[in-house]
Amino acid sequence: MTWLDTGMKRREAMAAMLAGLAGGTATAVWPEAARAAGLGGTLTGLLGRASDSTLDRLAQPGAFYDDPDIRIGLPLIGGLGGGLGGGLGGVLGKVLDTGDKLGLTGNLVRRLNDAAGIAAGEAKPIFRAAISRLTLADVPGIASQDDGATQYLRRSAGDELHGKLRPLIDSGLAQVGAYGQLDSLSRRSGVLRRAGITHDKLGDSVTGQALDGIFRYIGNEEGKLRANPLKPAEGLLKGLIGGD
Predict the structure, then answer these.
(1) Name one Pfam family in it (predicted).
(2) Residue 54 and residue 214 in contact, taking contact as beta carbons nearer than 8 Å
(3) Ramachandran region of residue 53, left (φ > 0), alpha (ψ -120 to 50) or beta?
(4) Which of 5, 101, 170, 212 has the smallest number of CB atoms closer than 10 Å to its CB?
């Protein structure tokens, strides 16, 4: 066997290893394709760990409510979305949030956040399933951004994740008594009825806001994992991006 044959064998073995990281086959893999396959597999594994870590954190009691950046609020009036934003919907949300803290609304806002935490604790399989199907075709762009894989997951699977998270949110809202409390408040005051806050609208709004918070945390976690050179997978990531 010549030195050329030995070099080719070595390159073929490396191509097979990198392709295996991405769950693919090693047949007819060119060096650049092998590099992309290896990087794709590394990013998928990194994103899976970031997702697991995020959902574990957000499943802790009070995690959503205690962080003002991801705290979930009531939907806005007039179908303008969720959260404690501006306009009349924002005013209503702030009034109810204040009433919540004073115990006047049965802690409805707190219950919404508790329901999101319950859903987060059960959401690992649906996030892992979505991540496992990522092709990460745009590898260079994804690899160059601290939260590139997270952004790609949201673009490619955001709607699917919303649909699969919604039943978990509905179950959580029922479990913490949020739907029952909404009905009770609606009977006592016409404000919520006039605002059009139904079970369906509340569930959809909480799901969207919960996803916003989850993706925010996953992106932050992805950045931390990329910045840690002691992690073997991230070391491979740096090697695949930076050189041979």
Answers:
(1) DUF4197
(2) yes
(3) alpha
(4) 5
